[in-house]
Amino acid sequence: MEFIKKNKAFCLFALLALLIILGAVFAPVLTGGVSPTDAVLRDALQAPSAKHICGTDKLGRDVFARVIYGARTSLTATFAVVAIIFALGSVLGVLAGYFGGWVDTIIMRVADMMVSFPGMVFAIAIAGILGASVKNAVIAVALVSWTKYARLARSLVLKIRNRDFVSAAIVTGSKTPYILTKYMLPNVIPTLVITAATDIGGMMLELAGLSFLGFGAKAPTPEWGLMLNEGRQFISNAPWMMFYPGLAIFVVVVVFNLLGDALRDVLDPRNE
Amino acid sequence: MKNCKKLIALLLSAALAAGVMTGCGSADTGSTPTTRPAAENREGEVNQQAFEAEHAVATDRTLTFGIQEYSIGVDPAQEVNTAWNCSRYGIGECLFRFDNSMNVMPWLCDSYTVSDDHTEWVFHIRDGVQFSDGCPCNAAAVKASIERLFRDSVGGSSKPKTFLAEESVLTVDDAANTLTIVTPEPVVDLTKNLCHPVMIVLDVAHTTDYVAAPIGTGPYAAKKFTEHVGMTVVRNEHYWKGEVPYASIELLYMGDASAKAMALQAGQVDLVENITNIADLDNLRNDPNFTVTIAPGIRTGICHMNVSEGKLLSNATLRHAIFKAIDRDTMCSVTVGGLYTAGFSVLPSNLDYGYDNLTNPDPYDPEEAMRILDEAGIVDTNGDGIRELDGKEIMLKYVTYPNRCLDTFAEAVQQQLTAVGIGVDLIISDGAGQWDSYQSGDFDINSSNWNTAATGDPCEYMNAWWGDCEADYCGYNNPEYNELFAKLQTTYDDAQRKDIIQRLQQILIDDAAAFPLGYYNSSMISNNAAIGGAAINTADYYWVTTDIYPAA
Lengths: 272, 552
Known about the structure:
The complex is a heterodimer.
Chain A: H1 2-6, H2 8-25, H3 27-30, H4 63-99, H5 101-115, H6 119-130, H7 134-161, H8 164-171, H9 176-212, H10 224-232, H11 240-267
Helix pairs in contact in A: 2-4, 2-11, 4-5, 4-7, 4-9, 4-11, 5-7, 6-7, 7-9, 9-10, 9-11, 10-11
Chain B: H1 2-23, H2 45-54, E1 62-67, H3 80-88, E2 96-98, E3 104-106, E4 109-114, E5 120-125, H4 139-152, E6 169-173, E7 178-182, H5 190-193, E8 220-226, E9 230-235, E10 248-253, H6 257-265, E11 271-273, H7 278-285, E12 290-305, H8 316-325, H9 328-335, E13 340-341, H10 366-375, E14 388-389, E15 392-393, E16 395-400, H11 406-419, E17 423-428, H12 431-440, E18 445-451, H13 459-462, H14 479-488, H15 494-511, E19 514-527, E20 531-532, E21 549-550
Parallel strand pairs in B: 1-10, 1-11, 16-17, 16-18
Antiparallel strand pairs in B: 2-3, 4-5, 5-7, 6-7, 8-9, 9-10, 11-19, 12-18, 12-19, 13-19, 14-15, 20-21
Helix pairs in contact in B: 8-10, 14-15
């Protein structure tokens, strides 16, 4: 109770985020059993009505069902990207920072190489080579995004690498894996968690961007970026085809961004 | 002093005029410019009358035309697309031309004779025809143009030998103004081949830049060309077929259909061709300020099926089930908003090849599709909603590209096939990717939009299912089809040819060998306040014509 009172914003956004996740999990209940891929060709491009509250798309599919099911695709892919870059980035960063020398050189030069390309353009190139699919879009975005975490983790490790308690641990015979997991990681994790939380919105936008450009989800997968692209040519006649997926992306990105900010306020000791 | 100046001016003018005349060689001196109205071949007298009523105010007008850039430049020898550009932009013309029923009309050639064995063709070139530089377009110029075509087309996609054998012997009779072509093999109807834009006649003696500014006999002459931006064509003052309505036409390249529609609505262009976006087309249809003309063309949106041994679609039951599972009528009228006309044969129903006499054994009936699959033991055994064939999951590799609604069709087909338990792995590639997949046989279904009668005859198109041909990328082999197709090559009688082609269509339908999505309707949309008379032709070789006139 004390925590809620102290961190009202965090609790509110966490609740909203939880609602979004629950919405994705219980999509069949929310849509009343309407399938996002059931097409009734004759019902194409119907405006929002009692039967289809968000209208229908060019193949007569229910836009509401597609938006709700789209949350599954978008959230899963986004969390996958964030998890991959969080894990990969922090491990490589900690190793580079702790061991230094040639390990550091190799890891950080590869990272430098990755950041020297414009992120989205490089992701498009990778996704283009791998072929269009959600999995490949996740790989592409992860490949261009891990460097941030690695650099962050490395700098945090370097900050404590030569502190007395680390030297003490070494001289008292602690094994390297023990030092890495007991001393290095705990010092790195809070900052990385905050970064990851604030990155969720950005990653979601990048994935939707790839799908919009045709490098991500493939038809008939309900995915917000792809739905935006499908609705693009109907923007003047059937604006609901773009409006609802766009709204979904907007809401989810805003909620997760604010959640990330609130989480930083919670974890940041300077706010005490 | 004054008189002296006048004299000098006169002399200079005379010298200039002489220079112009000698530029075309001696043959020109006797010719007279033809500006008489040509009534004999003009389609749409209404257009002509309206034009005549309007043209008094129209002498210095400019037309802006939003078009797709299919290929760079207008050289007929380079690519098929650039040849089309040359014809579509009103720059070049052929000896013959198709009317809207795909019949051959005399054009630069006004009469011809052919020997009984169909090897010797004598074409009389219309007297008085001039290129846009004022030089005469006579038999010798036509011969030079054809020779240059073969010379410069090496390595390109134009392939003039498809229309005229390279070994043909060309002889000119200057006095009679005739060109005699002797072909090594009999040709069923050479005049149809000579309608194709690759066979456009150009002034090769004076053209210096074929890509940007070839000199032709069309109503407009190329003036300025900027890659990916557009082309300016100006009135051909020497046009042989009457007045040309516009002083110049700005052809602006616009890749995106919506951009084209918006440019038209905003008044940035007066005319656009082929808006393939149903929503935009509907808007324009409902707007009284614009005229939308849609014409049944000669294109079929078709799914080639790979029936090669070992491929999923070598199973005939599966193919027939696909035919029954797909609702072509709704796809054509609703999903693509009438841009296609539904039909079950590979050849468009508006062509005169007996569509009405054909029978369709597989009308739309998804229940029946599921029944025949169940009966053949093609059922879903692992409960994932997709049936298995010989223990293998049915996942058809469907390759297409976003052109003329093919991608929209593909999604609709995918949905309908999935509904009966046939899985579809949809690959929306680009034009080159789709073609590569087709030629390499790496597909189950390959969907594209084919010009079925580029030379007014479907022979080349129907080659795709001739088992004895190297272009049979679908692996289709039916002895009766092969035999009839071979017979078609040596049949000259029109009625007999039509009978054979009708039978060939029925064989393909009975075998469910290829799935036609619909027959593409070309469109042209014009701003009523700016222009009139714009209409799309059946053969989409002709966009800029003298039928398009300025509104008052």
